[in-house]
Amino acid sequence: MKFKDYYETLGVARDASADEIKKAFKKLAHKYHPDISKDPDGEEKFKAVNEAYKTLKDPELRKAYDQLGRHNPGDNFQPPPGWEQYAQGSGGMGGGFGGAGFDPSAFEGVDLSDLFAQMGRGRAHAGRAGAGAHAGGQSFKAPGQDFEVTAHISLDEAAKGTMIALNLDMPEYDAQGRLHRVPQVFKARIPKGATDGQKMRLPGKGGKGFNGGPNGDLYLNIALHPHPLFRADGHNLFLDLPVTPWEAALGAEIDVPTLDGAVRMKIPAGTPAGRKLRLGGRGLPKPKEGQGDLYVIVQVATPTELNDAEKALYHQLAEASTFNPRGHFVAEAHRTH
Amino acid sequence: MTEQITTLEATWLSVTEFTQVAGITQGEVVELVEVGVLKPLGRSVNDWSFDSEAMTLARRLRRIREDLELHLDVHALALGFRLLERISELESALNRAQIQQLQDRT
Fold first, then answer.
1. Cα four-point dihedral sign A323, A324, A327, A333
2. B96, A233: Cβ pair inside 8 Å?
3. Chain B residues in contact with A217 (beta carbon < 8 A)
4. Are the C-beta atoms of residues B12 and A195 closer than 8 Å to each other?
5. Longest dimension (CA), chain A
6. Which of A71, A218, A310, B76 is the right S-S partner for A3, CB 3.0 to 4.6 Å?
7. Alpha-carbon span A240 to B101, nearest angstrom
8. Segment (H or E) for A299
9. What's the number of domains chain B is made of?
10. Domain stop point among A96, A129, A162
11. Cα–Cα distances in Å, from A207 out to A118, A182, A217, B53?
């Protein structure tokens, strides 16, 4: 079993009061909670802080933890002989650890957090049922854990529907109530019409419950890979369409890519940059019926290198044109002076 | 062993399922609907159907409440829902803007 220094994680002294531990936790939790924090590593940090707090806030668990002694974080260690009394005393361990004599190898490969979480559950149960009313921890039910996973699919897959296979490390309880990660392949069909950020709940498909407890739920998020051309917003798609200055000024018919191949689109004369043109029904299909729309955003592209003929024509245009795109600057200057 | 393949359909939650996911009482859900924070489909409480966006916000708020050991009354819950919703809208707008920037560069 690998040692973790819970006091160090919370930044408190080993003789810190319950109040000090709580305060230290609150401070760090507000700093690192993944739903609040800006820290990209917030999730990992919060997990560590939470694990430390869950153990140290409970006087019994804290006592059991203190009895493990001090080791360097990450060092492999074994609990001292006799330690299992804490485990058994807590009611949660049942026949799991050292029921018949102490077996240090029972702790091999066990994660400290799982161990204390299990002891905590056992104690909660023992408290409810009345100490000693049940034989060890064997009779209590524990619900399975909820599990959340993200499936990454392409825009084309979202449009046409697809099959996914996800490799999950599903949290499951074994006969002793210990939590294990069980590799599992989850196959699912995503029908056409899935959107980016879509969330689904699959009741009972999460971690298995213990001793007849209900299974947890599986939450699945859909994330679309960024497409090189299209941006999705729900079932609508957006496409930037670069046009030449003369196409924008004179109008043009342009082949515009869509998910089902190019379509010819009319750009009206005098189209300003940024104008949104709608191609109805060319977005992502909706699950039952209908399609989103494709919005084409006109962008006027300017040539960066001009040959002599082009240069001459631009000069000629500059001479002939009365167009002033900055008329409103002048009006604004008059207003303020 | 036959292989089980699940078809993923859009998630809608009944009011009972929503209270389970959100970890709040039905009374609190009713109040949140009354003040317009939650907008389920359906006319009467028993017909209510909550979409997956509401579910996601509810789960997020529950995680914050439980992890930080907060005990929120219904007004604080309403505020939490509104702020999380706002954040999620801003995040997706930012996300789209970042993709656009990437596309412009290529």
1. negative
2. yes
3. 21
4. no
5. 101
6. A71
7. 11
8. strand A294-300
9. 1
10. A129
11. 15, 9, 7, 23
Among all residues of chain A, which has the CA nearest to that of B4? Answer: A187
At residue B91's C-alpha, the angle toward residues A40 and A279, to 5°, is 140
d(CA A23, nearest CA chain B) in Å: 11
Tell me the ipTM for this assembly.
Answer: 0.85
| A251/A288 same-domain check | yes
How many residues can be counted in chain A? 337
Cα four-point dihedral sign A177, A179, A184, A190: positive
Instruction: Look up residue A154 and give its two tokens.
Output: 């392409």
* Structural domain includes residue A330: no
For A217-273, how does the pLDDT look when each residue is reduced to its tens digit (9 = 90+)? 999 999 999 999 999 988 999 999 999 999 999 999 999 999 999 999 999 999 999
In Å, how far are A318, B15, B17, B19, B61 from B23, measured between CA atoms?
68, 12, 10, 6, 9
Number of helices followed by number of strands (H, E) in chain A: 10, 11
Instruction: Find out whether A119 and A68 touch, Cβ atoms under 8 Å.
Output: no
User: pLDDT tens digits for B15-38?
Assistant: 999 999 999 999 999 999 999 999
User: How many Cβ atoms are within 10 Å of A223's Cβ, its own excluded?
Assistant: 13
